[in-house]
Amino acid sequence: MPIDLDRLPVDRGSGVSLWRQIAERIESEITTGAFPPSSQLPSESELTERFGVNRHTVRRALAVLAEKGLVRAVKGRGSFVEEAPLPYPIGRRVRFSENVMAAGRAPRGRLLGVATVVDAEPTRRLGLPPRTPLLRIEMVSSANGVPLSRSTSWFEKARFEGLEAELQRTGSVSRAFAAHGIADYARLETAISARPADPAEQDLLELPPGRAVLVVDAVNADAEGRPIQVQRTRFAADRVHLVVKS
Amino acid sequence: MPIDLDRLPVDRGSGVSLWRQIAERIESEITTGAFPPSSQLPSESELTERFGVNRHTVRRALAVLAEKGLVRAVKGRGSFVEEAPLPYPIGRRVRFSENVMAAGRAPRGRLLGVATVVDAEPTRRLGLPPRTPLLRIEMVSSANGVPLSRSTSWFEKARFEGLEAELQRTGSVSRAFAAHGIADYARLETAISARPADPAEQDLLELPPGRAVLVVDAVNADAEGRPIQVQRTRFAADRVHLVVKS
DNA sequence: AATCATTTGTCCGTATGTATT
DNA sequence: GAATACATACGGACAAATGAT
Fold first, then answer.
1. Is the same domain home to B117 and B218?
2. Residues A100, A68 within the same domain
3. Interface of A with B (CB under 8 A)
4. Which of A11, A37, B131, B216 has its CA 20 to 30 A from that of A105?
């Protein structure tokens, strides 16, 4: 009769700590597909029973896996297997929905807020005269219900009056542009940096404290090459990797 | 007689905490150029005297600036003004030294170690048969003496026997390649991600705990398009931003 | 609308083995 | 060997968020 690995008890006094053994067992079950991406892990108390250890020990193992970005714990609900990082192309074409769908996941955009602002730096990058009123739009985008990015965009207000209504309705910048007669647009320049997520980002992106965000700073232009959008996107660094084509 | 802002004492009971006032004063002195990039700040005790506060208050102000990535404290030496982030192009051409010199800074590479290894993943990406022996090379690269990146490279051992000697001597991958008859090489594919720096990286890159590293994963190929190098570079995210040309 | 069971997060402990000084 | 520090493991209580009833 074959050994049932799932029921194999932890090995006390083996020189390997229990939390490490448990973490490795759960990790192998994730990588072999016993726990598929986005599925829910057994609760801490179930794992406690299964491995015959204290709940703290299970929690330590789960903390290791969370640290590695393999699982994500949600208070009051449970722990879930993280999806593999989504490959996000950084090319001329910039279409969040397309990029997410190409990876076989369901994109969604949520409008957080709209404001009319005067801001020197985006104005300069849009090539507009100083103190031109801009539309500033805050969004959160997700794939399969998991938040992927938080973005801030600036547009010339006079040209994109009412853009927010379309954004609100569709949750898609591309579609809002289309409604304003812009069928095609492309990346002009892109700068990429990274830093730890701040508390607001931790909240909106459902990130545990200390994780990093990838900051992608881009200027997008219409078919004639005129800048129409300055965008600063903060991706949850655990959930994407940016792919640059040469 | 004009007011000497440098000598303006801190404003107690103004509703703004002393550490915040001091942080803002030092920050403005940095941005106005009174403390140029890479210069050394006055010691904590000098600042203590100048502002007439306790050393803890000065330390808190400096901690804020370090958190923002404006200054860098080095134990036993002092605090230094961070350089502006170096724009690092991610294009077809991959030349660390060129990129750093283009920004007007002095590049330097230091070889940390060389090992012969068998590793499935880089072997596969190099398009070599499984279990082919590889040369794995660990480096740290810096600009103006400030560590910028930590990289691990894999090469086919049979083809690049003795590469490490040249690397040791010049600290440059390009020059070591040249000595092996490879005049030109280019990026094949690049993936970018980010995560908090681990303790070893904090040490080598002189990063305070909690900061992020930009992980750039690349396969480079010779003039014929054959992969010759798999490279994983971890940039100190505070000190560079990657610029992608479209 | 209010209550309840479930689940993770945080805190208080105690005991024990291991490594260092 | 003794003293010390540290990591490991366990026990229990309660807070906080969630989802269902």
1. yes
2. no
3. 69, 85, 87, 90-92, 186-196, 210-214, 217, 237-238, 240-246
4. B216
Structure tokens at B150: 């930590």
Residue B125 parent element (H or E): helix B120-125
pLDDT, tens digit (0-9, with 9 covering 90-100), for A28-85:
999 998 999 989 999 999 889 888 899 999 999 999 999 888 999 988 999 999 988 9
- Residue that terminates a domain, selected from B81, B112, B134: B81
Question: Which one of B33, B66, B81 terminates a domain?
Answer: B81
Domain that holds residue B240: 86-244
A43 alpha carbon, distance to own chain's centre: 25
In tens, the pLDDT along B61-73 reads 888 888 777 888 8
- Residue B135 and residue B219 in one domain: yes
Q: Is residue A101 part of a domain?
A: yes
Q: How far is the C-alpha of A82 from the C-alpha of A124, rounded, in Å?
A: 40
Same domain, A53 and A118: no
**Nucleic acid strand C: bases within 7 A of protein CB:** 6-11, 18
Residue A212 and residue B189: Cβ atoms within 8 Å? no
Neighbours of B205 (CB within 10 A): 23
- The DSSP code sequence of B130-189 is TT--EEEEEEEEEETTEEEEEEEEEEETTTSTTHHHHHHHH--HHHHHHHTT---EEEEE
